[in-house]
Each structure stands twice: as structure tokens, then as C-alpha cells.
Specification:
The structure is a homodimer.
Chain A (H helix, E strand, L loop, with lengths): L19 H10 L2 E5 L4 E3 L7 E7 L2 E6 L5 E7 L4 E2 L1 H5 L6 E4 L3 E7 L3 H7 L1 H27 L2 H18 L7 E3 L4 H8 L3 H13 L4 E3 L2 E3 L3 H7 L14
Antiparallel strand pairs in A: 1-8, 2-7, 3-6, 3-8, 4-5, 4-7, 9-11, 10-11
Chain A binds a DNA duplex (30 and 30 nucleotides) through helix 7.
DNA sequence: CGAACTATTGACACCCCTCAAGACCCGTGG
DNA sequence: CCACGGGTCTTGAGGGGTGTCAATAGTTCG
């Protein structure tokens, strides 16, 4: 039942397994696992949560909303992501997290965070790392939404999703799972659903991508990166310290 | 010369002064101070820096750029902000930081970060907090750029700037310094300079705001928040742990 | 087989961008 | 003191990218 193999709290050296001491420590920190169905809320904007989660498997979205219903998804959630850092460290969540597929989460009690920081500088580093990485992804998304055309945004977003899927070992050279709806993409890119759909159609017609039955097919990743005006840098896996 | 009074690395309890031990520790961590002129680069996207900075005074912007020159400012930089967390924890900066006014920065050597995390869980918490806060600000900005109209974006951005100025003790009830150019605002909001200017003019005509000679005047902050479709929540100052 | 959700497509409107020119502001040097 | 120059702000005209509305088709699941 207790499984730490996919826990993001070991970014200090992503290739290093936990030492026996660390493993024992982490198992003690872990409170259990949580399974949620597809399309369920995990954490809600404005709420405080006594728990902090890491994603063992499944996909989701982080999003923020305006009262009148407008929604912005700020990032896509992948296995290995940390959820609830904000609620752990501030008073409340500043964004919501919802599952897109069924997910299973690793549960950590927030009140033990202090012990973690005190007793394990490696884990402290990991959490700083996780925060910095999230900030970096948000910045990239902000650049897209603020300064790229619809076509570029879509290309960049699909490239990123493809890249992150590959990084967690999903899909193969040209294929990747694509669990999100067009509406989620539109909300992530600051576009309307209709325009997202039309732009996607055009990209399909051009043979740039294929997307059906929750699978994304990209023959030429570099071309996609070029269309998206992004430099195709793979995920940095190995922090320095 | 060594002054830690405005250092963000004490968010654990923002009202608590450093203990003598902590003070000694931080002074030892600090490598010196750096003064930069207005309009100078501090840290560049893609570069690694051996230093981490905190802002003692002055203002700046964080920004990302596309090769063809398009620029997105991701956040405004205020005194008390931490700069270079990404370079400290990942391999390189994912965004640039430039000074808007003259700034003086507190310099910390990156290679001593590990000691900091190991010896001071309070500081570790502070850094996690700083990262989470930055993420929260970016998320708010992303929501604006993706889902708000030009008018709303401007109102929200000015409200936020006003609010952050007040939080650091600048300005008074209705006045606040406004060091940035319209171009910076436009780049932060994903708008063109021209449209930013026209929308601002309209807001001035309506008496919603005044802005001249680097000073922002807002008589009715709540009205501004309403126009921006934001809930006027003040900065959270007191994290829980 | 129906219900609910998701994707697709067309028509039309408008918000915002681009281009372009001029005004203002301010430091520098003759 | 005034001319000059660069940066910033302002204003107008016109075009295009994207949003909204609305209706239909396709898909999934009970």
C-alpha cells in the first residue's frame, strides 16, 4: 500500500533512489493514498487543506476562476507533481486542482511539513525545486497567452504536453496520451472553445498533428516547436546542488 | 554595510525579528550588496548565476521573451522579493530580471544555499514560501491575461501594484509610486502599448485613476477592484506554520 | 435507445493590433 | 538661453484575429 516510487520529493537527485533511512522517513511522513474519479475536485481555490498531495498517476488541471464563470487553467497536472504546496505554506490555495482522469494521490499531512524541513534538507531542497519548476511552467504559459497567436499557443501547448508525457514515460516516439478536452486547452490558452477547435482543425488538415480518441500523434516534433515559436528544450532533469 | 532588515528570508513570521543567532547566521550568509542603475539587466533568461539576490530597495520587472522580440513581463519586482531562486535550484534562469529604477540588492552566494537549508529550517520554509507566493502572483496574472478584458486587466494590475506598494509602506491612502512605463504595463498584460494608452486615458477621464509623474492616485480602491473583477483581498502576511 | 457531454461548422460582430504621425518631456551640449 | 535628440506619451484610421451565438454531428455510457 505504501509506495514512494513516484514521489516528487526526491528531485534532489532524480536518479538516486532513497537511502533506507530516507525511505523509512518518507513512509512515516506519508499518511496514505487517495483515489479520485475523473472530473472531481481535489483542492479548491480559497480553501485550506490539512493535506499535501503528490500525484502517483492520472492527470488533472490547476485552474483559477472569476466569479462570473470565466476560467483559466494555469497548468496541467502530471504524475510526479506536487499539489497543495500553497495551502501548506500560505493560508489557502490560490488555485483549484481538478482531476481530468482518475487519479491516485499520495497524501502527506501538512502539520508534519515542519518536521520534514527540519530533519531533511534534501526534502526541503526538493520542495523549493518543485516550487521553482512550477513557477517556470507558469511563466512559459503566461508568455504564450500574452504574446503568442492562437496557432502558436496551440503548437506550444501540445509540444509541452507531448514533452511532459515523454518525460514520465508515457507514449512513444510519435504518440502520446492526450487526456484533456479541447475546452481545457482553450481555458489554458486564453482562447474560446470555438476558435481552439477551428485552429486545431487547420493544424490537423496541414498534417502537423493528429488527435483522436485521447491520443496525440506528432510526426515532426521540431516542426511543431517551430510553429509554436518555442525553443525545444527538453525538461531539465538534473538540478545542480 | 550589512543590513538584513528588509530581507525576505524571514517570512516564517513576518512580524518576528531575527534572533541574535539567526541574525549572525544571515549576516554570514550574505556576501554583500549590489547597486544597479535604472534600466539595467540583473539576471538574464537562460543564464546561470552564482548568486541569489533579495531586493532591499528599488523596483524592476521579471520578463520572458520570444526570439523575434515579443516580450512578456511576468511580474513586477518589489523590495523584499527574492531573485534568482530558479538559478539556485535549477540549472538556469527561466526568466530575466531588469531594474526599472535604481536598485540595491542583497547578495547571497548560491553554493551556500545548501548550508542554509541544512542549518535553518526556518529559512527553508521561507524559501518555499517565497516560491509559493511567486507562483500565486503569476497565476493571478495569468488569469488576467487569459480571461479579462483590457479594461479589467488594467484595473486589476493597478490595484495589485497599489496594494503591494502599500504593503511595503510606500505612498499613502490614495497615492502610490508608479515607477513603470506604460510599455511595461502593456507587456505585463499582453496588450499593445497603443491600446494600453487608450484604455488608461478612458479610465483617467472617468476619474477612476490619475497617473502622472510616476505617481498613481486612486480615490476609490474598491471601485477599481470592481472594475478589475477581482476580490480585493489584501496580501496575506502571516503564514500558518 | 436516449441522455449528456464533446466536437464541429458557419455567420457576424467587435475588441484589439498595426501603422503612422505628432506632442510632450527632459537631459545634454552649443 | 535655446536647439537638439531620444525616450515616452498621445491620438487617429483601418484591418484582422478572435469572440459570441447558434445549430448540427459525433461520442460515450448507462
Amino acid at each position: 500500500m505504501i509506495d514512494c516510487s513516484n514521489c516528487p520529493l526526491r528531485k534532489h537527485d532524480v536518479f538516486a533512489a532513497f537511502t533506507p533511512t530516507e525511505e523509512r522517513f518518507m513512509k512515516e511522513f506519508k499518511a496514505g493514498e487517495l483515489k479520485v474519479d475523473a472530473g472531481s475536485p481535489v483542492l479548491s481555490e480559497g480553501a485550506a487543506s490539512p493535506y499535501l498531495y503528490s500525484v502517483l498517476n492520472g492527470f488533472g488541471v490547476r485552474s483559477k476562476a472569476i466569479e462570473d464563470g470565466r476560467r483559466q487553467v494555469t497548468n496541467f497536472v502530471f504524475p510526479g507533481d506536487l499539489i497543495g504546496l500553497q495551502t501548506a505554506v500560505m493560508n489557502a490555495m490560490e488555485h483549484s486542482v481538478d482531476s481530468t482522469t482518475a487519479m491516485t494521490l499520495c497524501v502527506f499531512p501538512r502539520e508534519r511539513l515542519w518536521d520534514l524541513l527540519k530533519n531533511s534538507p534534501e526534502r526541503a531542497f526538493d520542495m523549493v525545486w518543485a516550487g521553482a519548476r512550477e513557477e517556470s511552467l507558469l511563466g512559459e504559459n503566461l508568455l504564450s497567452v500574452g504574446r503568442r497567436t492562437a496557432r502558436e499557443r496551440l503548437a506550444a501547448a501540445l509540444w509541452n504536453i507531448f514533452s511532459r508525457m515523454r518525460a514520465i514515460g508515457e507514449g512513444d516516439r510519435a504518440h502520446a496520451p492526450m487526456p484533456w478536452r479541447q475546452q481545457d486547452l482553450a481555458d489554458a490558452l486564453g482562447l474560446s472553445l470555438v476558435h481552439t477547435n477551428k485552429t486545431l482543425s487547420r493544424m490537423k488538415d496541414e498534417g502537423l498533428i493528429q488527435w483522436s480518441s485521447s491520443t496525440l500523434v506528432v510526426e515532426d516534433l521540431d516542426q511543431l516547436a517551430a510553429v509554436g515559436s518555442i525553443e525545444a528544450t527538453p525538461e531539465r532533469k538534473r538540478p545542480l546542488i
